[in-house]
Specification:
This protein has ten helices and eight strands. With 251 residues, it is of the alpha/beta class. It has a domain of 170 residues: Rossmann fold (3-Layer(aba) Sandwich), CATH 3.40.50. The longest helix has 19 residues. The structure holds benzoic acid.
Length: 251
């Protein structure tokens, strides 16, 4: 899926995405100096943290808008424009790290992505990943599906959120050995009184683009936020109902 990112807003209002990525790095057991590919590096914030931990880091991403920010903020790191399901490296790396990216790749393209990662790793290299797992943002997608239908549109959930068994099977079919896998809930605080509407506008551009009339689009988002208030607004704060899948696999 190709979406055009509002890169500045993503960096300023959705920084939780890379803050949570710090925990995922704890699964890396490669020694300092090892080479790491940050797959779907976005604005490069986690590539920088990986570098500060002593790794030699490269980043790839499909968004030119986010890469521009990454290159400007961290000129000392090599960032490249590439599709996660169609890339190759000149030199293999010891670790491929990926945070909050793999759910953007359609199910049909996941075997290609895993093949690219496999080829990009040295023998015994580590693939460390976290992304949206089965049931991710279910309240939000269910509510939007209902409101789209009331407005005579059909809502297509644009992400791939697999179960543990589905994804570990794909990894094993590629040749990986899975050493750790978990699926867990993480209610995630959003920023400000418009938090949920901002989240919907930022991440659901593809289904929203079906609705040409701006007023109707805004009405649908408002209705969804009101519909979800009882479940996702607590003590003056909006939350998104995230479910994460976190895996460590070895080549
Ligand atoms: C996620 O990180 O799980 C996610 C973020 C934005 C849209 C969908 C999923």
């Amino acid at each position: 899926m190709n979406i055009k990112w509002d890169a500045d807003k993503y960096t300023s209002d959705f920084s939780f995405v890379h803050h949570y990525g710090n925990d995922v790095m704890e699964l890396i057991t490669a020694s300092k100096g090892s080479s790491v590919l940050d797959l779907g590096c976005g604005n490069g914030a986690l590539s920088k943290t990986l570098q500060e931990k002593g790794y030699t880091v490269k980043g790839i991403d499909a968004s030119r808008e986010l890469l521009e920010i990454a290159k400007k903020n961290y000129p000392e790191i090599e960032f490249m424009h590439s599709d996660a399901a169609n890339f190759s490296l000149q030199e293999p790396v010891d670790v491929v790290f990926s945070n909050a990216v793999l759910h953007w790749i359609d199910k049909e393209r996941q075997p290609d992505l895993l093949q690219c990662v496999y080829q990009a790793l040295n023998k015994e290299g580590q693939f460390i990943m976290e992304f949206g797992g089965y049931g991710n943002n279910q309240f939000i997608h269910e509510s939007l599906a209902q409101i789209f239908a009331e407005h005579h549109y059909s809502y297509k959930m644009p992400f791939y959120f697999p179960t543990i068994s589905e994804y570990t099977t794909l990894l094993e079919n590629t040749g990986f050995s899975v050493r750790f896998a978990a699926l867990f809930d993480r209610m995630t605080e959003l920023k400000g009184e418009q938090g949920l509407k901002d989240w919907i506008n930022m991440f659901l551009k593809t289904p929203l683009s079906l609705i040409e009339d701006e007023g109707e689009r805004e009405a649908i988002i408002n209705e969804a936020a009101e519909n979800l208030r009882g479940r996702l607004y607590r003590s003056g704060k909006w939350y998104a109902d995230y479910v994460r899948i976190r895996i460590k696999a070895i080549k």
